[in-house]
Design a protein that fits this description.
Layout: H1 7-29, H2 40-48, H3 52-62
Helix pairs in contact: 1-2, 1-3
Amino acid sequence: MLGMLDLPTAAVIVLAGVIWLWALLDCARTPADRVRFVPKLLWLLFLLNGSVVAAVVWAYLGKKAIPNTAKGPVQRTEPFAQAR
């Protein structure tokens, strides 16, 4: 049939759609203070363009990393010390 796609082509199209949808939802759910370089609205417009390239750019450049607030590993003085 001429209208049917072969399986590898359909898989690539579905994967591209999933990546784009993930990036769009991730941008929409990211707080505005974690967005880098341009305002969040411009990122959303850029992603609504529908390009997988836009999704990759969002993934690498779009938001700031969450600062590490951990105080480090727990240090115990005895081999099987109980946590308090």
